[in-house]
Amino acid sequence: MTQLSPRLLNRRFFLGSAAAGATAALAACTGNDSSSSGTTTTVTNASAAPGRPVTIGFSAPAADHGWMGAISKNATAQADQFPEVTFEATEGTNDVQQQISAVRTLIDRDVDALVILPFDGNALTEIATEAMSAGIPVVNLDRVFASPLAYRTWIGGDNYGMGANAGRYIADTLRSRNVSNPVIVEIAGIDSLELTQERSRGFREALEAQGLRVTARQAADFTAATGQEVTAQILQAEGQIDALWNHDDDQGIGVEAAIRQAGREEEFFMVGGAGSRRVMDQIKSDNAVIKATVLYSPSMASSAISLARLLAQGSGLGGLAEHEVPASITTYSAVVTRDNVDDYLAVGFE
């Protein structure tokens, strides 16, 4: 029989023929590796035999943020789980043109699959589409490209659901405390990003469904410094607050600092976002203003690498009736509280 090249296998896969090779389960269980550089969560499956050798390229923004740093660490750790995978990661950058150049370099190296978390989905759409046209399957991680033609599979968090679950938790908690006409504050991320807009929309609509509303809102650009600054401004403007939702736990370092400086830790409760280990430890200890966080776990990067491996090898996803890897996978934004925090400590990122 004539041997097909990896690239031809990918092209045949895109045309919709049956996937070659045995299927492999994406997530039988999760493994955790703790070190001084932080915690990584990997997908493990003891029954998945190594497939044919493949090279996976990876591109993401700069690891200048705890969550983004965990994305890169998880992707690298997951690739290490597969002896047949060669992992080529480009240097992280928040410069759109530099990321485009980095992805182009991976295309020129003829990698078998690409995992791309774009700094700006719209700006990276053209280069990702170019990769797809060249027969390289693209796994679009989290921040979505502007066109489905730019990716074979998307995997990411549920930003609307994240906001909605934060809103439901706050509404339920206020109701249990018999708080009427509550003052609810929202500290958002980067307002120009669709993910921030979706988080805010989910939060607002969940509150409105319970007859509540956001009293004050500020964007903090996903930085601790800006989080502290805008929270201090809101605390000066609002003499009484009942609940606060902060979109991002790293940003929350500054938010919490402003609350402590104002001496208002006992006045209201705070809900975080993303699921850092620092915040989970505080929730477990129950000695801080923050009482819950809504997950947006960087473990999605581990799953993205596993999906890229399956696509590159022409395999399907175990446990599903379909022969092909799904076109879209959305993670769930669970609410982590003192009651269930032990179940989620393993996925808390540094």
TrEMBL record:
Domain of life: Bacteria
Subcellular location field: Cell envelope
Keywords on record: Signal
Keyword Signal in record: yes
Region (Disordered): 31-50
Keyword Signal (UniProt): yes
UniProt GO molecular function: carbohydrate binding
GO terms for cellular component: cell envelope
Transmembrane segments: none
Compositional bias of kind Low complexity: 31-49
Domain annotation Periplasmic binding protein: ranges: 56-314
Signal sequence residues: 1-27
Gene3D superfamilies per record: 3.40.50.2300
Family: Belongs to the bacterial solute-binding protein 2 family.
Protein name as catalogued: Sugar ABC transporter substrate-binding protein
Organism the protein comes from: Parafrankia colletiae
Lineage: Bacteria, Bacillati, Actinomycetota, Actinomycetes, Frankiales
